[in-house]
């Protein structure tokens, strides 16, 4: 899978060099390229923003550098990429999004800052990409970079081969619409707390039933919205 990220803070994305995603890049499973939006400006100050028409606080990102950056990326491919725009006014990103996006060949993340990107950019982009506005949740970050990191990790780990043991993708929170069951490791007795007896019983049927019960209880208690 190819992933392009456009940002005015390309250094923010250096976290993608490490751990699981970094390994997937060196293994050739993920082709991740980071672009500096300011490379697509031509004035002395490399300007990417300006004041909003109609007034108001903050600055708005100019559409032209974004269009040039996308055109630069499109020159290298012949398919129609998906353009993901992290924004608190997008649809809330979920495991379902991650699963769907992990099937794509090419994602582009446009990480905006300030009050957002000139609306005309989105209209233009729909001619060359499948555009989706996505949010991490109902709170405000300073820009799309942290959100893009989260989404790329959620998507990237579902690309076949990125996670060594694919079984670990099956029994995890949200993969079946429920929260994960509690887990334990050695020692069986720790500071007076005992591992639930059933997990030591060797009865795999009973263990599976107990774990499912725990999933339902946890989800009911912490995330009742997932059950309705
Ligand atoms: Cl995707 N972007 C920004 N700037 N803030 C957010 C967000 C995204 N998701 C939640 N808050």
From TrEMBL:
The positions annotated for binding S-adenosyl-L-methionine are 112, 136-141
Alphabetically sorted, this entry's keywords are: Cytoplasm, Methyltransferase, S-adenosyl-L-methionine, Transferase, tRNA processing
InterPro entries noted in UniProt:
Alpha/beta_knot_MTases, tRNA_m1G_MeTrfase_C_sf, tRNA_m1G_MeTrfase_TrmD, tRNA_m1G_MTases_N, tRNA_MeTrfase_TRMD/TRM10
Q: Give a GO biological-process term.
A: methylation
The answer on whether this UniProt entry bears the keyword Transmembrane helix reads no
**Which reaction is catalysed here?**
guanosine(37) in tRNA + S-adenosyl-L-methionine = N(1)-methylguanosine(37) in tRNA + S-adenosyl-L-homocysteine + H(+)
Any one GO molecular function term: tRNA (guanine(37)-N1)-methyltransferase activity
The tRNA methyltransferase TRMD/TRM10-type domain is annotated at 1-227
Q: What is its main location?
A: cytoplasm
The listed locations are: Cytoplasm
Name the EC number(s): 2.1.1.228
Pfam family for this entry, one: tRNA_m1G_MT
Q: Would I find ATP-binding among this entry's keywords?
A: no
CDD domains reported in the protein's UniProt record? TrmD-like
**What is the recorded function of this protein according to its Swiss-Prot or TrEMBL entry?**
Specifically methylates guanosine-37 in various tRNAs.
HAMAP family (UniProt xref) = TrmD
Supply the NCBIfam families for this chain. Answer: PRK00026.1, trmD
Q: Which family does it belong to?
A: Belongs to the RNA methyltransferase TrmD family.
Binding partners and assembly: Homodimer.
Protein name in the entry: tRNA (guanine-N(1)-)-methyltransferase
The taxonomy runs: Bacteria, Bacillati, Actinomycetota, Actinomycetes, Micrococcales
Q: Which gene encodes it?
A: trmD
